[in-house]
Amino acid sequence: MSGESKSGESKSGESQKPSWEERMSEAGNRIEDEVRRVIRYLNDEVVPEVRRNGSDALRSAAAEIERLADSMDRRRASAPPPHPPRDVPKP
Fold first, then answer.
1. pTM score, two decimals?
2. Coil, helix or strand for 9?
3. Does residue 9 contact residue 15 with C-beta atoms inside 8 Å?
4. Domain that holds residue 31
5. What is the chain's pLDDT, residue by residue, as a tens digit (91 residues)?
């Protein structure tokens, strides 16, 4: 960095564009901040809501499975008995 201070200004006081390493570092910092924000949102808002409503969803699914099982039982009870096997020639 000849002729340039850490602030990105040259000795003459002109502002210089940040290097690609500096831009990547800044982008990385912003990404890390956003990831922290998303994680905080998930932990504070989404997870508690799923926990509150998760049991309702399970109960609803269980009721639907019970209806399906009842339907299967009714079909089996009303179905004609299976035909006896035909005589199959032995080899």
1. 0.45
2. strand
3. yes
4. 18-77
5. 444 445 555 555 567 888 999 999 999 999 999 999 999 999 999 888 888 888 888 888 899 999 999 999 998 888 777 777 777 666 6
Residue found by looking up tokens 């200004």 in the block? 9
Rg (CA), the chain: 35
User: Domain count of the chain?
Assistant: 1
Rounded distance, CA 68 to CA 39, Å? 39
**What are the tokens at 7?**
């602030």
DSSP structural state of residue 14: -
Q: Measure the CA–CA gap between 43 and 36, rounded to whole angstroms.
A: 10
Domain assignment of residue 8, yes or no: no
Q: Which helix (H) or strand (E) holds 90?
A: none
User: What tokens were used for 71?
Assistant: 């339907």
